[in-house]
Fold this sequence. Notes:
23 helices; 7-stranded mixed sheet; binds adenosine-5'-triphosphate; binds magnesium ion
Amino acid sequence: MHRKAGIAPPQPVVIVVEKLKSCGHTAYIAGGAVRDMIIDQRRPGDWDIATSATPAEVSSCFEHVVPTGLAHGTVTVIEEGMSIEVTTYRHDGPYVDGRRPEHVVFLDDIAADLARRDFTINAMAFDPTTGELVDPYGGVSDIEARLIRCVGDPAERFSEDKLRMLRAVRFAATLGFSVDSSVVDAARALAPGIVQVSVERIMDELVKTVRAPKPGAALVLMEDMGLAPYILPELCCEVGEEERKALYAACDRLHPEPKERFAALLSPLGPNGARIALARMRVSNQFSITVSRIIEGAQNLGQNPSDYELRLTASRVGQDCLLPAVRLNRALCRQGTGSLAVADLGSEGIEAVESLEERAGSVLAAKPALRIADLDISGKEVMEATGLSQGPRVRIVLQRLLDQVLHDPSANKKECLLEMATGIAEEMEQELA
Ligand code: ATP
Ligand code: MG
């Protein structure tokens, strides 16, 4: 079959295929890059090449190679500064643990290599030097039907590698495709087996899923496949299916930023519960802290936050987390999830996300003091003005000054603060007396 693909491969990729062929081997662009070229909507992330050449033969064809994954037949070729993975056609040996093949067998036939791949849309190969497209499983027609189908029997393919169930969810999210009912049925039967897969591989797919523009429908699919209790066990213990689905829908209203979307998914756990769940998921500390701050911010904001409440929230959770927290707060209010203390949704009306986001943006643009360090007064100056000696009371004065300034940013002037500091210190004196 010949077909003119939509997106042209970069020159170095074509050169690598040409060189392999001139050395007497066959070689194709294979997998995700071919899919993305045909879909013609996004540039492929990586341009993987599959070849009949063994890793040793690939290495001898090129000057600059890095032996990245020799056991799996992968060599990285550096051509004109571009890193291109070249993998020998292979067949996966028996899957002993539902995760990875015990060993791989090198082959010299592209069709056999495509047979080991997960979905028809990922099981195509393209020769950029001739325009030949190898599509033994109907990948093109599935792309046209916007459908995810397995290569072969879904139950068998999912039994080999349980992660493929979640990969179906990921491709549904990133491509906006439907998943064939045979795939959903097989996943339903095999969902508990996903626990055999390492949390790192699961998170890789989950993060790619939530990075999609609108992951809501795919997350509902994950729920319908019965995967949710294994992927998000903490959430499933906390809330029922209906509320979980409302949270998945809420994700669509947020920016396609994993931290923001994870904040939505874990919001019913609160900031601390979210951190515990994220520790299990082995994400970075920074990721986990940001997610929990976004949740805390969204909770603090309540239904109709004033400018002071916006500044107070930014002060507590950090200004970078304010806008994500605003969006999460609105998404949860609009979705009517019980995760936030939203009183009576109908009674007062909720400020639209755009206008609250705009207002929060203006609040931050005014560069208000949000931390003690931003105050136009130092601890030393507080001590001089009040006669307090170094200790926790100075900190209390500064904290109260900050609170005043959060109420009225124009009060962040030395003279004004010195006067307020004296007043606060006197009040404290009286309270203690
Ligand atoms: P992306 O654009 O996100 O990189 P991709 O399709 O390239 O998507 P990868 O995970 O990089 O996805 O995998 C590259 C190719 O390898 C896939 O297109 C598929 O053909 C094959 N593949 C990857 N993982 C599996 C798996 N678990 N089971 C079967 N085939 C797989
Ligand atoms: Mg890839």
